[in-house]
Amino acid sequence: MPTPKLSITTLLGALGVIPFAVATYLSWADYDFWGVSAYKLFSTYSAIILSFLGGALWGQLIHDESRQSVKYLLISSNVIALVAWLALLLGTPTLAIALLLLGYISIFWVEARSLKLILSPNSTYLNMRLVITSIVCVLHIFMLYPHY
Q: I need a labelling partner for 66 at 20 to 30 A (CA). Which of 42, 48, 60, 118 fits?
């Protein structure tokens, strides 16, 4: 029996979790990375990935912007990316990571809602996104939990 092939989106999604895990480990081990705090590594990477997900959602929906629901989803993806940027500007690591966590929850909800219009509810892509988003959210929670 042939083994199932790993899609490029699944592979890239899984690899994308590694920097979150490394920064979380560095934070819990109380290490810096070349003089940069683990919180800064985590939050900047998180904001970049959250913005990327917003842009990817934009790309999926732009072809059908005539529908009112799609307009709201496009606006939502932009708002989430702007919140990620704002989180970095706050200068309060805990608040930034909390806002980014809410951003991941929000972008998944927006993406799942929009992709239900395009894909089947049992889509392997949505299932993969749920798993990866859940892992990323748990890592955000670990970053928020005091570990003295």
A: 48
Beta-bridge mates of residue 20:
none
Whole-angstrom distance, CA of residue 73 vs CA of residue 79:
10
Single out the residue of 135, 145, 143, 146 nearest to residue 26, CA to CA. 143
Per-residue pLDDT tens over the stretch 7-36: 888 889 899 999 999 999 999 988 888 888
Instruction: Assess if residue 9 is contained within a domain.
Output: no
Cα-Cα end-to-end distance for the chain? 50
Residue 118 domain-assigned? Answer: yes
pTM across the whole model? 0.84
Q: DSSP per residue over 67-120, as a string? A: SHHHHHHHHHHHHHHHHHHHHHHT--HHHHHHHHHHHHHHHHHHHHHHHTTTS-
